[in-house]
């Protein structure tokens, strides 16, 4: 498969032109990548008006993923999430309400997009909660939620896989959505590789209408590289995809990031699937070894190992144990440790992490049930985010209205949503996740 962006950048660098154009480093610098870092010079195409090398590269990605259209983002899935909501609102199906039903474990980028677009959101809650990161919504729950609406919402929005690796039943959820005449949108930031499994499990393969992938999370792509995918079923959205991305993106997207997406196309077309298939047994063996050593390994997507911390320990402590041996995990909280693996990891690296964790001799306490912060919506998300605000200690936030959501990244999942009244359950969750202050509306 051709790599038109990479080829152009290499040819441009080899020509040793005098660069009387941006960027200011002029192709020289200490990083070593400056000669490939350009702007929209002649022949380089432009991301949001692509009709040359970028268009050719995106067409390659479209073919690889089997979408109606796949577009690049150099600003991560955050840009794609905003673009998705814009497209869904612009193409709201006839007879639907200007409302999105969203599983509560959304990334904060969703909240910001809802504020910018002034969208109404109604939350889908799990029956029980043991982590801020998870929000398990069954097809039966979704059916009941849709039947309770006077009109179908314009879309249903879920996150799958979630930060702990939980995977939704997208095929069944899509069937429910389509029966009610509404779109299914998926934040698939952690699952760009799913199309290339022996049995494809990407949201587009399972019936989602639109989704985003953070390519950089699981593929050999520079940080910030992402995809906006539109399914063939929702092909009518494709014509406005570039406009949607341009609305929220910089007019100076990184050519280095785009080149890494372009290079990844060749890898996906040739070597990735065999490498992925070869990696899966390594991860499965690591999980089996951990279980035999007394660890509780949670169900997750195939490229993740999620370990539950035993009684008397924490995910934070397990993460420090790994760091002492030069291993940096993806995520840790009080209850969990998450290791994200890709085809760029060696089997030895995975096995070393397992060996460092060693044997667990501690018992497991009953899985804690966390409170659900179902605060009353006193202002719209937009009104609250644009209102004057102040930062107060969590203990002083009871009864106040949330301004900007207080959350660290990762996992960037808000406890209280902008415009909600902060109740006792939210206070308890803030303390549980170590959040000491919160922004509230004045």
Detail the topology: elements first, then pairings:
Blueprint: H1 4-14, H2 53-65, E1 69-73, H3 76-90, E2 97-103, H4 108-117, E3 120-124, H5 139-147, E4 153-159, H6 170-179, E5 183-187, H7 203-206, E6 210-213, H8 215-218, E7 226-230, H9 241-248, H10 255-270, H11 272-292, E8 296-297, E9 304-308, H12 315-323, E10 331-332, E11 336-340, H13 347-357, H14 381-386, E12 389-393, H15 424-432, E13 437-441
Parallel strand pairs: 2-3, 2-4, 4-5, 5-6
Antiparallel strand pairs: 1-7, 6-7, 8-9, 9-11, 10-11, 12-13
Helix pairs in contact: 1-10, 2-10, 3-4, 3-9, 5-6, 11-13
The CATH topology of the largest domain is given as Aspartate Aminotransferase, domain 2
Work out the number of β strands.
13
Please indicate the count of domains: 3
Calculate the mean pLDDT score and round it: 96
- Label the overall shape: globular
* Proportion of residues in helical segments: 25-40%
Distance between the termini: 56 Å
| Largest pleated sheet | 7 strands, mixed
Question: What's the short story on this structure?
Answer:
It contains 15 helices and 13 strands.
What does this structure look like?
This protein is of the alpha/beta class and 442 residues long. The protein folds into three domains: 4-270, Aspartate Aminotransferase, domain 2, CATH 3.40.640; 273-357, Aspartate Aminotransferase, domain 1 (Alpha-Beta Complex), CATH 3.90.1150.10; 381-441, Molybdopterin biosynthesis moea protein, domain 2. The protein is built from 15 helices and 13 strands. It has helices at 4-14, 53-65, 76-90, 108-117, 139-147, 170-179, 203-206, 215-218, 241-248, 255-270, 272-292, 315-323, 347-357, 381-386, 424-432, and strands at 69-73, 97-103, 120-124, 153-159, 183-187, 210-213, 226-230, 296-297, 304-308, 331-332, 336-340, 389-393, 437-441. A seven-stranded mixed beta sheet has the order 1-7-6-5-4-2-3, sandwiched between helices. The protein has a four-stranded antiparallel beta sheet with strand order 8-9-11-10. Strand 10 (331-332) and strand 11 (336-340) form a beta hairpin. Helix 11 (272-292) packs parallel to helix 13 (347-357). The chain is globular, with a radius of gyration of 22 Å. It starts with a helix and ends with a strand. 45% of the residues are buried.
